[in-house]
Specification:
This protein has 311 residues and is of the alpha+beta class. Helix content is 38%, strand content 14%.
């Protein structure tokens, strides 16, 4: 099966369609810092993993289903599309779409982006045929339109194995300009200068400052001193609420006793059941019974730095 995912392509050399949503802060899974770490070569992300391979495998089916549903012809684009003014802005197009009676010398009419999605994520998608798709996918589709100069991108998505939908995204010059400006600024201000963008999450700070200097101390400012005191107050409230919740649980258990479910007017309010039996590897027992083998199965784990606020 052909696919358009070149796993050997050096992702540090360009910004792609899957990066633009993260740069704009639209992605649930990646932040601008994640993109910066990848593009500067500080982190090498595995792109030939099981989810990626499955996505590539499913892409063929989604594209075929789209062609069968619409009657359009579709064709692979194996090489990345590069922006005419900025060679570091690229995109891997899933498919180019051609008219139903297209001749070999005719140009594509629009772009097709293929997705698979969790059935439980349907609420993030709007009416079929609209452009109401998750924002990161919307940015990705407009990115491909900016690169190809075509006027429409169809997004075909398969939820589970029962729900197939097609959405239509029309070219938007203003949005396109915003995406390109953000990408150029990110590349010039952060990638080329090796200066990270502002951290947005705790995970960002963990990645940017993963290394520590033993014995190094920094003096708090009045502002940070105030933040520490606020954190202590918040922790005190959390502790009090956890104790309150524990007391409520004890009262519920006293009321339920041997019952598995607590109901009110036919509605289940709570359950108290044993989970299914699970099994875990008894490392202590293995170390005792096979001391000569135990060191061979030990793997060092690099833990993240842990912020502890002293009381």
């Amino acid at each position: 099966m052909l696919n358009n995912q070149d796993f050997t392509h050096d992702r540090t050399k360009y910004l792609g369609g899957s990066d633009i949503g993260a740069i704009l802060g639209l992605s649930k899974y990646r932040t601008p810092v994640d993109v910066w770490l990848e593009k500067t070569g500080k982190v090498v992300n595995e792109v030939n993993n099981l989810p990626v391979r499955f996505g590539t495998f499913a892409e063929e089916f989604v594209a075929s289903e789209y062609a069968s549903t619409t009657g359009y012809q579709v064709a692979h684009q194996l090489e990345p599309i590069t922006h005419p003014q900025h060679d570091y802005l690229q995109g891997h197009i899933d498919r180019f779409v051609f008219a139903k009676d297209s001749r070999p010398d005719q140009l594509p009419t629009h772009v097709l982006e293929c997705k698979t999605a969790n059935p439980f994520a349907r609420s993030e998608w709007g009416e079929v045929g609209s452009d109401e798709v998750p924002m990161t996918y919307l940015a990705q589709c407009h990115w491909y339109l900016a690169l190809t100069q075509l006027e429409r991108c169809d997004l075909a998505v398969l939820f589970g194995n029962t729900d197939f939908r097609i959405y239509h995204i029309e070219r938007d010059a203003a949005l396109e300009s915003t995406l390109l400006e953000a990408a150029v600024t990110f590349w010039q201000d952060h990638v080329l200068t090796d200066m990270p963008p502002d951290a947005k999450t705790i995970g960002d700070y963990q990645k940017l400052f993963d290394k520590e200097v033993p014995g190094k101390t920094v003096e708090a400012t009045e502002q940070t001193y105030s933040l520490v005191n606020t954190a202590k107050e918040v922790n005190a409230v959390i502790d009090a609420k956890e104790q309150e919740l524990e007391q409520i649980k004890k009262l519920l258990m006293e009321h339920m006793q041997e019952a598995q479910e607590l109901t009110y007017q036919g509605k289940v309010l709570a359950t108290w059941k044993k989970p299914k039996a699970s099994f875990r590897f008894d490392s202590k027992r293995f170390e005792i019974t096979h001391p000569e083998l135990f060191p061979l199965f030990q793997t060092p784990i690099q833990n993240s730095r842990r912020l502890v606020i002293k009381t």
